[in-house]
Amino acid sequence: MRILLFVAALMLITSAWASDNVLLIQLRPGGGFTVWHTEGESQLSDEEVMTLEAAAKPGGGEEIPTSFGPARAYENNDGVTIRLPAARNDKALLLDRDNCGHVRLWHAAGTTTLTEDQLTDIFMSALPEGGKRLTVGGYHVKAFITPFGVTATLWPIPPGK
Q1: Among 64, 85, 98, 114, which residue carries the largest CB count within 10 Å?
Q2: Rounded Cα distance, 78 and 69, in Å
Q3: Spatial CA neighbour of 81 closest among 113, 49, 43, 114
Protein backbone atom coordinates (compact mmCIF):
# COMPACT_ATOMS: atom_id res chain seq x y z
CA MET A 1 0.00 0.00 0.00
CA ARG A 2 2.85 2.40 0.80
CA ILE A 3 4.33 1.80 -2.63
CA LEU A 4 1.03 2.67 -4.30
CA LEU A 5 0.78 5.90 -2.31
CA PHE A 6 4.38 6.78 -3.15
CA VAL A 7 3.81 6.14 -6.88
CA ALA A 8 0.58 8.20 -6.84
CA ALA A 9 2.31 11.09 -5.05
CA LEU A 10 5.26 10.93 -7.46
CA MET A 11 2.89 11.06 -10.44
CA LEU A 12 1.11 14.13 -9.05
CA ILE A 13 4.38 15.94 -8.33
CA THR A 14 5.93 15.20 -11.73
CA SER A 15 2.76 16.18 -13.58
CA ALA A 16 2.76 19.52 -11.73
CA TRP A 17 6.39 20.07 -12.73
CA ALA A 18 5.60 19.18 -16.35
CA SER A 19 2.64 21.53 -16.64
CA ASP A 20 3.22 24.47 -18.90
CA ASN A 21 1.48 27.64 -19.83
CA VAL A 22 1.54 29.43 -23.17
CA LEU A 23 0.99 33.16 -23.51
CA LEU A 24 0.51 35.32 -26.57
CA ILE A 25 2.16 38.69 -26.01
CA GLN A 26 1.22 41.54 -28.34
CA LEU A 27 2.88 44.95 -28.42
CA ARG A 28 0.25 47.70 -28.19
CA PRO A 29 0.54 50.87 -30.26
CA GLY A 30 2.17 53.49 -28.05
CA GLY A 31 3.85 50.85 -25.82
CA GLY A 32 2.86 48.24 -23.31
CA PHE A 33 1.62 44.73 -23.92
CA THR A 34 -1.61 42.84 -24.30
CA VAL A 35 -1.28 39.33 -22.87
CA TRP A 36 -3.53 36.45 -23.96
CA HIS A 37 -3.61 33.11 -22.13
CA THR A 38 -4.22 29.57 -23.44
CA GLU A 39 -6.36 28.78 -20.40
CA GLY A 40 -9.22 30.84 -19.05
CA GLU A 41 -12.61 30.47 -17.43
CA SER A 42 -14.66 31.26 -20.56
CA GLN A 43 -14.64 27.90 -22.32
CA LEU A 44 -17.02 28.22 -25.26
CA SER A 45 -17.99 25.12 -27.23
CA ASP A 46 -16.62 24.61 -30.74
CA GLU A 47 -20.11 25.21 -32.12
CA GLU A 48 -20.41 28.54 -30.27
CA VAL A 49 -16.98 29.66 -31.50
CA MET A 50 -17.75 28.73 -35.13
CA THR A 51 -21.11 30.52 -34.99
CA LEU A 52 -19.46 33.66 -33.60
CA GLU A 53 -16.64 33.52 -36.13
CA ALA A 54 -19.14 33.30 -39.00
CA ALA A 55 -21.05 36.32 -37.61
CA ALA A 56 -17.95 38.49 -37.06
CA LYS A 57 -17.86 41.94 -38.68
CA PRO A 58 -15.43 44.87 -38.30
CA GLY A 59 -17.94 46.85 -36.21
CA GLY A 60 -19.15 43.76 -34.39
CA GLY A 61 -21.49 41.04 -35.59
CA GLU A 62 -24.90 40.27 -34.21
CA GLU A 63 -25.17 39.39 -30.52
CA ILE A 64 -25.33 35.62 -30.08
CA PRO A 65 -26.34 33.77 -26.88
CA THR A 66 -23.62 31.48 -25.46
CA SER A 67 -23.05 29.43 -22.32
CA PHE A 68 -21.34 32.54 -20.86
CA GLY A 69 -24.10 34.97 -21.78
CA PRO A 70 -24.47 37.11 -24.89
CA ALA A 71 -21.39 37.46 -27.08
CA ARG A 72 -20.40 39.56 -30.06
CA ALA A 73 -17.52 38.86 -32.49
CA TYR A 74 -15.37 41.57 -34.06
CA GLU A 75 -13.24 41.13 -37.17
CA ASN A 76 -9.93 42.98 -36.82
CA ASN A 77 -6.26 42.89 -37.90
CA ASP A 78 -5.55 40.17 -35.34
CA GLY A 79 -8.34 37.93 -36.62
CA VAL A 80 -11.56 37.66 -34.65
CA THR A 81 -12.08 38.93 -31.12
CA ILE A 82 -15.08 37.66 -29.15
CA ARG A 83 -16.44 39.89 -26.38
CA LEU A 84 -18.31 38.29 -23.45
CA PRO A 85 -19.56 41.19 -21.30
CA ALA A 86 -21.46 38.93 -18.87
CA ALA A 87 -18.43 36.75 -18.03
CA ARG A 88 -16.93 37.24 -14.56
CA ASN A 89 -13.27 37.86 -15.49
CA ASP A 90 -12.49 36.38 -18.90
CA LYS A 91 -14.44 38.90 -20.98
CA ALA A 92 -12.59 38.58 -24.31
CA LEU A 93 -11.27 35.78 -26.50
CA LEU A 94 -8.96 36.02 -29.49
CA LEU A 95 -9.62 33.41 -32.15
CA ASP A 96 -6.51 32.12 -33.92
CA ARG A 97 -6.02 29.37 -36.48
CA ASP A 98 -2.86 27.31 -36.72
CA ASN A 99 -1.24 26.34 -40.04
CA CYS A 100 -3.59 23.35 -40.30
CA GLY A 101 -6.71 25.49 -39.80
CA HIS A 102 -7.42 24.32 -36.24
CA VAL A 103 -9.01 26.92 -33.98
CA ARG A 104 -7.11 28.11 -30.93
CA LEU A 105 -8.70 30.45 -28.39
CA TRP A 106 -6.62 32.94 -26.45
CA HIS A 107 -8.18 34.21 -23.21
CA ALA A 108 -7.92 37.78 -21.92
CA ALA A 109 -7.76 36.61 -18.29
CA GLY A 110 -5.56 33.82 -17.00
CA THR A 111 -3.63 32.81 -13.92
CA THR A 112 -0.14 33.85 -15.00
CA THR A 113 0.78 37.43 -14.16
CA LEU A 114 4.09 38.94 -15.19
CA THR A 115 5.52 42.41 -14.74
CA GLU A 116 6.04 44.80 -17.65
CA ASP A 117 9.82 44.25 -17.32
CA GLN A 118 9.40 40.46 -17.46
CA LEU A 119 7.14 40.76 -20.51
CA THR A 120 9.72 43.03 -22.18
CA ASP A 121 12.51 40.49 -21.53
CA ILE A 122 10.41 37.69 -23.00
CA PHE A 123 9.31 39.78 -26.00
CA MET A 124 12.89 40.86 -26.78
CA SER A 125 14.22 37.29 -26.56
CA ALA A 126 11.83 35.91 -29.19
CA LEU A 127 13.05 34.51 -32.51
CA PRO A 128 11.04 32.77 -35.25
CA GLU A 129 12.58 29.39 -34.34
CA GLY A 130 12.52 30.17 -30.63
CA GLY A 131 14.80 32.39 -28.62
CA LYS A 132 17.16 31.24 -25.91
CA ARG A 133 15.60 29.89 -22.73
CA LEU A 134 15.13 32.53 -20.05
CA THR A 135 14.43 32.30 -16.37
CA VAL A 136 11.66 34.68 -15.35
CA GLY A 137 10.40 34.58 -11.79
CA GLY A 138 9.64 30.94 -11.01
CA TYR A 139 9.49 29.92 -14.70
CA HIS A 140 11.70 28.86 -17.56
CA VAL A 141 10.52 30.59 -20.74
CA LYS A 142 11.03 30.05 -24.47
CA ALA A 143 9.61 32.69 -26.84
CA PHE A 144 8.69 32.47 -30.54
CA ILE A 145 7.77 35.16 -33.08
CA THR A 146 4.40 34.44 -34.73
CA PRO A 147 2.09 36.39 -37.05
CA PHE A 148 -0.04 37.46 -34.03
CA GLY A 149 2.82 38.49 -31.75
CA VAL A 150 5.17 36.52 -29.49
CA THR A 151 4.13 33.19 -28.04
CA ALA A 152 5.93 32.27 -24.85
CA THR A 153 5.93 28.82 -23.32
CA LEU A 154 6.44 28.94 -19.57
CA TRP A 155 7.10 25.97 -17.35
CA PRO A 156 7.72 26.01 -13.61
CA ILE A 157 11.23 25.61 -12.29
CA PRO A 158 11.23 22.40 -10.22
CA PRO A 159 11.72 22.99 -6.49
CA GLY A 160 15.34 22.82 -5.37
CA LYS A 161 16.77 23.83 -8.74
Answers
A1: 114
A2: 24
A3: 49
Q: What is the pLDDT of residue 17?
A: 39
Task: Say whether pLDDT at 160 is over 70.
Answer: yes
* C-alpha pair distances (Å), 65 with each of 45, 54, 120, 124: 12, 14, 38, 40
Query: Residue 20 has what pLDDT?
Result: 52
Contact yes or no for 26/148 (Cβ under 8 A): yes
Half-sphere exposure in the Cβ direction for 144 (13 Å, CA) = 10
Do residues 48 and 35 lie in contact, with contact meaning Cβ atoms separated by under 8 Å? no
- Residues 6 or more apart in contact with residue 145 via CB below 8 angstroms: 126, 127, 128
Q: What is the pLDDT of residues 8-52, one digit of tens each?
A: 333 433 333 334 599 999 999 999 999 999 999 999 999 999 999
| Buried residues in 128-154 as b, exposed as e (16+ CB within 10 A) | eeebeebebeebbbbbbeeebbbbbbb
